[in-house]
Amino acid sequence: RDxxxxxxxxxxxxxxxxxxxxxxxxLILECVDTMNDNIDKIIAKxxxxxxxxxxMKLITGxxxxxxxxxxxxxxxxxxxxxxxxxxxxNVHQMISPSFVTRMKAGIIMMAPNVAQMLxxxxxSSKVTAFFRxxxxxxxxxxxxxxxxxxxxxxxxxxxxxxxxxxDDNNEAINGSEEYTDSKCETYMEIQVTDDVVDKxxxxxxxxxxxxxxxxGAYENTSTTLSLCLYSIAxxxxxxxxxxxxxxxxxGQKKSSADPYETIxxxxxxxxxxxxxxxxxxxxxxxxxxxxxxxxxKGTGITIKKDHVVHIPTYAMHRDPEYFADPxxxxxxxxxxENIAHNPYTYLPWGAGPRNCxxxxxxxxEIKLALVNLVHRYVFHTxxxxxxQSVSGDLIITxxxxxxxxxxx
Length: 408
Description:
Keywords: Endoplasmic reticulum, Heme, Iron, Metal-binding, Microsome, Monooxygenase, Oxidoreductase. This protein has helices at residues 2-12, 18-45, 56-73, 86-95, 99-110, 112-118, 125-147, 157-164, 170-173, 184-192, 203-234, 236-255, 259-263, 267-279, 313-317, 359-376, and strands spanning 51-55, 286-289, 294-296, 301-303, 308-311, 377-381, 387-391, 394-399, 401-406. By secondary structure, it is mainly alpha-helical. It has a single domain, classed as CATH 1.10.630.10. It has 16 helices and nine strands. The longest helix has 32 residues, at 203-234.
């Protein structure tokens, strides 16, 4: 398992370098502009042309779907107004599992050996078949372009995986601004036979990585972003301080040739996101499988090889032993000068070599959206409470209803 994981990780890691994320930024910003337009339309249709009640989970879900599909596959969709699009339909089926699917997920997490014997999967065969065909067609389209002798210039996740799989395509792997993909013919030749070599993925592995990327980025981005807005709406003083920092950023962006670099200087915004994830982590707990017997010193307890270990993320994040006044939303605790929590007590994205590989992309999508939203609008709470439920190890946010007011 470890050797297989390392091989796949080696292939897909180059898709998440700073250089690649920087080149993805314009794609994401297009989706941010669409999100702003959607909010403006909702406000324009309300009784007041300056404010309106909005389910921000719906809005951020559409943004996340659009940006993730754009970044993953290079396809433009309308997440809010094109709900019958087969890509959108299948994405929603993946992130809105049925009762049977949730039962399967429980068995996979709690008894992986049993799940393997029963050949249980998180995703339905129908959804898997759709994305298998969808990915095949995209690869065939790009293969036909290569056959014409034209270079393929794309920065989406699928293409970056293809680039990374070519040992000789160092220019693309190193994140240069201009690159061609003629060496991807090597990939095509390998994949047609479905052979797997040191730096290659089978079709099934390629599809699985694309789908997992889609699931992780979509749900993490939409939920975290909507809960950030909910949290600052509940705490106007935090919202005001965040706006001041963002207002300064917009002034710097006008004089800066590299807004991607500038956005990472917003330390208070980072703290707001971190504190939101502390109170509202995506998962109740993380799961890891022991690779060998391990004795917990001083307890007499031995974790056996292949046993599943559950790490209670949600509980640790709200434990006063690790975070003072854990129920209080206080972004300042994550400012560089104040960070004092113990290692591995804050785990919204996991930790170590097996942490969530798409974390940096999700953070970029959240930051780019949050900067624009807070700069354009003021967010207020409504009488409708936050709706959340638990499904397996997932914390599902159903709706985030806020009143949005345009800044003058």
